[in-house]
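Re: the request from the purification team.
They wanted to know what the chain is likely to look like in 3D before they choose a buffer screen. I agreed to run a prediction and write the result into the notebook, where they can find it.
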Amino acid sequence: MFDVKKETQNICNFIKDYFEKNNLYGAIIGLSGGKDSTICAALLKEALGKERVVGVTLPCHSKDEDAKDAKRVADFLGIELINYDLTATFDEFKKGMEVFIDDEKECLNSDINLKPRLRTASLYYLSALYSAKRKKTYIVCGTSNKSEIFVGYYTKGGDSVSDIRPIADLLKEEVTSVGEYLGLPHDLVYKTPSDGLSALSDEDKLGVTYKEIGQYMKDPASLDPEVAQRIKKLHESSRHKLYIPTYIKGDQ
């Protein structure tokens, strides 16, 4: 049974302790307007105080609705919010790649994954910049949850990269519970999960629901065999994202 009060406090203590032990000051977090980044930002505020959290919107051919929701989050929490539009950067990058592209359909996956990689680079640039400007160390907060990580629903070298991951051991439904407990706006806590990069929801793209992923992780046999097989395939085909094979001398 998920004890939301206990786990929320444990996460806040985890964040606070890590920052204290490592002499860190602030956190930079990308705000998409979605539930995961919203709830991570709220946890950072609870643990560190609103003056030590900086939200960043990073639009890149994005929906205006997402930027508006991100601003609502920042206003609700009282944290600083900055905007860095990556649209022109993305377009210039693609322009330089045109010589290699024969068919736009071939680069669909490349395009989708380029956006979170550009965003991650931007967050790390800003964390170093704020550290220098304020003479205090800022780090980048990750927003992936356990359900996404299990099926590899993240970009290697993109949103897989961060300095601290507050909700990486929480299933999607547990993240929602934390959002409710923290009293965040209902529509943001229950906003349909989407990567903001395509016209599809997360569950549309995955072909399974987050509830089914959570159920599979607890008891695969309780699911329809076809659904269970789909989740198993997603998990196994994404293992390369979790571990980097490294040769060790003499390990033959």
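For the purification team: The mean pLDDT is 94.
Please add any questions underneath this entry.
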